Amino acid sequence: MLSRTADHVYWLGCYAERAENLARTLDVQYRLSLLPRDTALEDAGWERMLDALGLIDDYVARFDRSFEAHRVIDFLAFDRDNPSSIFNCLRAARENARAVRGTISSEMWETFNATWLEARATAPTRFTARNVAEFIEWVKYRAHLARGVVLGSMLRDEGYHFMQIGTFLERSDGVARLLRIRLACERPDGAEGPAATDYLPWTVLLRALSAYEIFRRVSRDRVTPSHVIAFAAFRPDVPRSILRSTELVFENLQAVANARSAETQRRAGVLHSMLRFGTLDTLGTAGAEGFLRDVLARGADLSDRIGRDFLGHVTPA
Amino acid sequence: MDRPTKTPTVAPYDEMYTADGQVRPPYEVYADWLIREPEDALRQKRAEADSLFHRVGITFAVYGEQDGNERLIPFDIVPRVLSADEWRRLAAGLRQRVHALNAFVADIYHGQDILRAGLLSPEQIFCNPQYRPEMQGLGVPGGIYAHIAGIDVVRAGQGEFYVLEDNLRVPSGVSYMLEDRKMMMRLFPELFALNRVAPVEHYPDRLLENLASVAPAGVADPVVVVLTPGAHNSAYFEHAFLAQQMGVELVEGQDLFVRDGFVYMRTTRGPQRVDVIYRRIDDDFLDPLVFRADSILGVAGLMSAYRAGRVTVANAIGTGIADDKSIYPYVPDMIRFYLGEEPLLANVPTRILRRPDDLAYTLAHLDELVVKEVHGAGGYGMLVGPAASQAEREDFKLRILAAPEKYIAQPTLALSTCPTFVEQGIAPRHIDLRPFVLSGKDITIVPGGLTRVALRAGSLVVNSSQGGGTKDTWVLEE
Question: Does any domain span residue B201?
């Protein structure tokens, strides 16, 4: 497969997943903002979220330090000038699909194209910061649809593998960031309180990962930060867990291995093993922060290496 | 040569109806259906077609337009129909013409018999920017230069066919032929049960066979690629479409490189050899070492690999010499010269303004003639005399006098019309036809082609860049 083609399908996977992750992240914060909770920590939630997404500098440069909900929502969901907004991720996914429309299936191209056309036509009117919940639902369902189309129509060749690698690197990144945002909002001392309502944000987080019902079904644990982090990080059978994502990155990388990718495969294996054999028992919530930071750094390193080994990116001097 | 006649004042030939309102035979079944179809239903079908084309992304890029820079080429839901007999005559003429054109290009770049015979003067070739000295004496597989030709044909008078233009460089539009058919079958399946419409869907298979048949000698299983200038090119949809339909890679110049005399593409598993390049880039941009040095679309060293016979470029470099408007008037002579046959398809009678008597006549009859710049394309750089104002004609006259050899003149043909669904309902609009002729081991033509339609009432300009649309083209089987 052409390196340039592989590059486009890789980024197609990344941007499609990023749009969905952003929608899910926004969903958590938005739902929390509707709850009758009144803590200073929660008020700073929007700021923490921007910080964890790596967008705080861009935001502050444009809006100063005024983190009102509607402004942040607009910035993350619809902003034409924020290259990382959901709107622009949908566009970037579509542009990458267009560049390889001859390689991916027609149904895939039509799905990504239709999503973008609909976003462009309806985002300024039907969807606004006032009814962001509807927009989030729409983004999630378009993502489900696209996933189904990919599964049901794409040839299982290198293009598929590179798209999967892009998708799941992005997913592990997105989930790790989401957990860090929540963690940053916890009490500084890290102590776990007894009242169930204290952990409402973690319930909301599970719902945003489409995993609340699964949590209830497979776990007798209470919803506490460490239980949710362990669940979202280490469960092999939860579709959006970090373990599942790193496993798929590792497997798909094996399928495309080439003469110079041995070190990249090894590092993907190390990341996967960290999740596969890791546990939070020894870490506690304090150690969890360091652990998630490590996961993010290793993911970024893999992304760079994949670019150099396969996608024709130039090695930085 | 025939003398151009005065602008006809009679109504143009209508493809569906005779002058006294009778339905012509190939349209009988369709016209009968159309009468019973309510206008609302047609309007709804047309809206459906628009939204489908948008979703499928069958668009062309428009430079300088905001937000995506992509526009639809309007699709008309009324088909253009040709009888089996009409098609047989047309196809025979096209085959003959393309055969002679390939022989001409081969001759120009080898023996130049046609110059020695005095049919053309040397400066008409060697002073023509489309002549590529780099091609002189270079052999190409099968002696084929124009592997893919798009021949623009119009009907005038009592429905006679005339060739308006030969497109032998990178003719486009075949994807619309295929997508228009797909759309018609989706919107009006019942029409295909009522009419025996010859299929066109096998065009990509034929194209791939054709390209493989001209691979460098000794290559058993050639790797074919489509070379595109990129996603911002106006015909990008077609490039991607053809690559996908043929199941070959769509490459950009940056994906290819030349090493040890061979062309390779950069893949995730290292370099892979390329044997046949179906290029959709003009000669000028193909190789910065030989042609335009500022080209970032091409491949450095491609020409050297080509000269060494390690790769086939389709269409060949330098075919432009045969589709230039200044050469066009001589195609009937070429047919006689190379094939010893009388042309089956007529040229539009053309005055060559490098000739003093043709120039004098043209200047005296500017209000009746169409004057074309010989290197112009896409409907630009031309004067449609009867439609132009006095001032425009005066202005054009000065341009002609400054360089008469740059112009040809033709009578304003009353292009045939075909009923077309426009805002006001069904109304006649002028059309042309571009069939696609494939030359490799054999010459193949899928029945039909791209029918373009000038959507503005009275307009003769069918180019998509100037508001033209397209129609599905039916060739009926017997």
Answer: no
Please state, in angstroms and rounded to a whole number, the distance separating the CA atoms of residues B90 and B161.
8
B133 is a domain residue: no
Residue B171 burial (CB count, 10 A): 22
CA distance B49 to chain A (A): 15
Q: Spell out the residues 6+ positions from residue B429 whose beta carbon is closer than 8 angstroms to its own.
A: B417, B418, B419, B420, B422, B453, B454, B455, B457, B459
Rounded distance between C-alpha atoms, residue B70 and residue B63, angstroms = 9
- pLDDT (tens digit per residue) in B74-93: 899 999 999 999 999 999 99
When CB atoms are compared, the residue of B54, B244, B249 closest to A117 is: B54
Q: Which residue has the higher pLDDT, A35 or B214?
A: B214
Peptide bond into B195 cis (omega under 30): no
B102, B353 contact by CB (below 8 A): no
Q: Are B289 and B119 a contacting pair, CB within 8 Å?
A: no
In a domain, B50, yes or no: no
Full domain range(s) for residue B253: 217-310
Decide: A232 and A240 in contact? Cβ < 8 Å: yes
* pLDDT, tens digit, 9 for 90 and up, residues B171-213: 999 999 999 999 999 999 999 999 999 999 999 999 999 999 9
Distance in Å, alpha carbon of A182 to nearest chain B alpha carbon: 37
Tokens of B205: 């298979």
Q: Is pLDDT larger for residue B16 or for residue A197?
A: B16
Q: Classify burial at A150, counting beta carbons within 10 Å of its beta carbon; exposed 0-12, middle 13-18, buried 19 or more.
A: buried
| A120: Cα separation from own chain's centroid | 22
Short-list A258, A255, A9, CA closest to B268: A258
Q: Rounded CA gap, A209 and A178, in Å?
A: 10
Q: Between chains, do A114 and B55 touch, taking CB under 8 Å as contact?
A: yes
Q: Are strands B369-373 and B351-352 parallel, antiparallel or unpaired?
A: unpaired
Q: Where are the domains of chain A?
A: 1-155, 156-317
Of B54, B57, B268, the CB nearest to A109: B57
Q: Please report, rounded to a whole number, the percentage of residues in chain B having pLDDT higher than 70.
A: 94
Q: In this structure, what is the dihedral angle of CA atoms A102, A107, A113, A119, given to the nearest 10 degrees?
A: -160
CATH number of B290's domain: 3.40.50.11290
User: Which DSSP helix (H) or strand (E) runs through A309?
Assistant: helix A284-309
In this complex, which of A1, A98, A120 lies closest to B268 when CB atoms are compared?
A1
CA distance B467 to B449: 19
Q: What residue in A sits closest to B53 (Cα-Cα)?
A: A110
Cβ of B144: how many Cβ atoms within 10 Å? 24
Task: Please tell me the total count of domains within chain B.
Answer: 1
Pair of tokens at residue B133: 């000295």
C-beta atoms of A3 and B54 within 8 A: no
- Taken as a whole, chain A contains a residue count of 317
> If pLDDT is split at 50, 70 and 90, which confidence band does A283 have?
low
CA distance A144 to chain B (A): 18
Q: Name every chain A residue with its beta carbon within 8 A of the beta carbon of B53.
A: none
What is the reported pLDDT for B5?
41
- Residues in chain A within 8 Å Cβ distance of B266: 2-4, 312
A120 touches chain B (CB under 8 A): yes
Whether B83 maps to a domain, the answer reads no
Please indicate whether, in this complex, the C-beta atoms of A1 and B241 are within 8 angstroms of each other: no
Distance CA B238, CA B231 (A): 11
A141 CB-near residues (< 8 Å, 6+ apart)? none
Question: In the Cβ-directed half-sphere of B341, how many Cα atoms lie within 13 Å?
Answer: 14
Distance CA A38, CA A35 (A): 9
The interface predicted TM-score (ipTM) is 0.73
Whether pTM > 0.90 for this model: the answer is no
Q: Cβ of B266 and A117 within 8 Å?
A: no
Tell me the three state secondary structure of residue B446: coil
Q: Locate the chain A residue with the closest alpha carbon to B229.
A: A99
